[in-house]
Every structure is written in C-alpha cells, then in structure tokens.
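Continuing the batch. This is chain 6 of the set; chains 1 through 5 are on the previous pages. Same settings as before, nothing changed between runs. Recording input and output for traceability.
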Amino acid sequence: MVTGHGMTKAYLHRFKITHSPECVCANGDQTVDRLIFDCPKLEKEREKLRNSIYIERRRLASAEMRSSEQIPKPIQTVYKFH
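Output for chain 6:
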C-alpha cells in the first residue's frame, strides 16, 4: 500500500478486475489515500490507531525519563550531545 499498489478498488479497476473504482462510502474512488485519511467508514479505526499511537508515545517518553534518571550524570551529558 505504501506505493499505491494495494488491493484497492481503484487499483483493481485499472485492470478491469472490479466494475467500479468507487469507495464503499460512495464519496470518491477507493484509493490508498482515501482509505487511510478520508473514508468515513474507517473513522473508528483511524481513531483507534491515533489513540494507540498517543498511548505508545507517552509510554516511551515515560520509560525514557525513568531510564535517564538511572544513567550516571557523565553519561547523560554524552547522550545530550548526540
């Protein structure tokens, strides 16, 4: 899907595998971008993804703070310059 060659209806329609390129939401062609960013039928999944990313970022930031407190000061200084 990164290259835009996923099994979307728009892609398959180019090869006459599907009858229509239209997205299931009927608001345009079913492309990778539409599925990831715009299709209203996938809004709940996008919200779950955003929430899991937010939670993971907070977890990593918290773990980083805890580990930096355990690193001796001279080593912390070296890490700051990289």
